Amino acid sequence: MIAHDIIVRPIITEKSMLGAVNKVYTFEVAKTANKIEIAKACEAVFKVKVAKVNTVSVRGRFRRQGRNNGGYTKSWKKAIITLTEDSKPIEFFEGMM
After folding, report:
1. What is the pTM of this model?
2. What is the spatial distance between Cα 45 and Cα 64, in angstroms, rounded to a whole number?
């Protein structure tokens, strides 16, 4: 897999923005990617040093459409990436704080 296929999108929430101060960033990643692939992809795309990767599989939520129809949103995988102390921060998140 290519690095841009592994990292799908950043997660922009209040909690994730509080973590960005301490060089902890949150991304949606490919469901099949493991922690080592996620770390290498993050280092390749953002040119940073990754210290730790935590992953969470988020299950789809039940949503109603119309009167009797109901279904689930897609399930996805979330990665919480911690950078090393000597690493530079990711510039994408710097403009949002």
Report:
1. 0.88
2. 38
